[in-house]
Amino acid sequence: MSKMEESEKISEDFIHLARIALSDRQQDVHAFLHRIAKRTEDPSLASALVELLRKRPTRSSTLRRSPTVALPVDTDSRFQLLRQEERPVLPHEPIYADAVQDMLRRLVEERMRLEALTHAGLEPTRTVLFTGPPGVGKTMAARWIARELDRPLLILDLSAVMSSYLGRTGTNLRYVLDYAKSIDCVLLVDELDAIAKRRDDAAEIGELKRLVTVLLQQLDDWPSSGLLLAATNHAELLDPAVWRRFEEQVAFGLPDREAVRAFVNSLLELVEPNAREWSDVLSLALSGQSFSDIERKVNSARRSAALNGTSISDHLATLLSVNDRPKNERIELAVQLAESGIASQRRAHELTGVARETIRDRLRSKGF
Ligand SMILES: Nc1ncnc2c1ncn2[C@@H]1O[C@H](COP(=O)(O)OP(=O)(O)OP(=O)(O)O)[C@@H](O)[C@H]1O
Ligand SMILES: [Mg+2]
């Protein structure tokens, strides 16, 4: 490199460093300094940087409880292997079926009243598997538990870690799990089924086997001071040996009608005068959908209303009468609204666009 090029490179690096430092991205500053330390041909610069980095672990790397340990990163890419939420925040309180809620409360209580267990010669539950379709509150449950226990939540997204670094995933996984074991936290291993999905070539199968072995060992050895949660949408893809290792399993389901009603009401009660009616109507119209889909639809209606200066009701109505709902489904919905007493026949007609005569005829044929 000529002197000129070298000085340009230094300016470029300096500007980049200034940019990330000024935008408060400490983690990136650390990663960048690591890279410089590795790349530079000046040994005194390299050792000065390494020394500084050693003395000042990243701020987001926790640590309230363990100030000297840095969050694990992939050694070559510096890709961050874990996401850490120091104090998990929930957008709103979750709604769960009774059995799920009871189990989540139990897990928290076991930790809060540890002496009661220890006294009886027992340990708290260490490993729990969350199963269920997307958008029903599995990740939220991990946040909820961490918040209740006032511990940081560490999230390891297995599919992200595996997608680009399969060759090193075993090492990375061990690294991450060792780190999580060393601090007082709740660990969520998200998308656990990723471990079972990539079966495309023989080299990968070997690596996957090693991964499963690492995971099984760690599950067996997990200390009772920690809580390891894992979540999957595809429990059926998991090796039964993995399943069996978890001490408890919690099956999250799609919300029932009552849960949809309560959820829609909580989303609308402060912003829509007819929140109650809409909660009833949407509990029928959106049944079978996940919490996150329902939330997305209600929020989209709210956005449209805010932008157009119209009422939220107008936009919620499009959820019922839009053309992508097949005609027979719309008729069925109109009949159910009238039949259950949620809406009069006229209101059911207004909401769904189905002719009043059709609604009346259907109800008559059902003996109303
Ligand atoms: N049980 C619930 N009660 C209230 N809100 C919920 C519930 N489940 C999901 N939500 C809403 O949907 C969002 C997404 O939920 P979450 O990320 O917990 O789903 P998940 O089950 O982990 O889905 P995935 O399998 O796709 O990771 C939450 O942030 C929340 O706003
Ligand atoms: Mg999730």
Pick out its properties:
single chain, 368 residues, alpha/beta, Rossmann fold, 3 domains, six-stranded mixed sheet, 17 helices, 59% helix, globular, binds adenosine-5'-triphosphate, binds magnesium ion
Number of domains: 3
Distance between the termini: 89 Å
Instruction: Please report the total strand number as a whole number.
Output: 6
Strand order of the largest sheet: 1-3-4-5-2-6
- The CATH topology name of the largest domain reads Rossmann fold
Enumerate the spans where pLDDT stays under 50 for 5 or more consecutive residues: 59-68
Strand content: 5-15%
Task: Please describe what this structure looks like.
- This protein has 368 residues and is of the alpha/beta class.
- The protein has three domains: 1-56, no CATH class; 98-251, P-loop containing nucleotide triphosphate hydrolases (Rossmann fold, 3-Layer(aba) Sandwich), CATH 3.40.50.300; 257-365, no CATH class.
- It contains 17 helices and six strands.
- The protein has a six-stranded mixed β-sheet with strand order 1-3-4-5-2-6.
- Helix 7 (158-182) links the parallel strand 3 (153-157) and strand 4 (186-190).
- Helix 11 packs antiparallel against helix 12, helix 15 (327-339) packs antiparallel against helix 16 and helix 15 packs across helix 17.
- The longest helix is centred in the middle third of the chain and has 25 residues, at 158-182.
- The N and C termini lie far apart (89 Å).
- Bound molecules: adenosine-5'-triphosphate (ATP) and magnesium ion.
- Magnesium ion (MG) is lined by residues 138-139, 190, 231.
- Magnesium ion binds at residues 138-139, 190, 231.
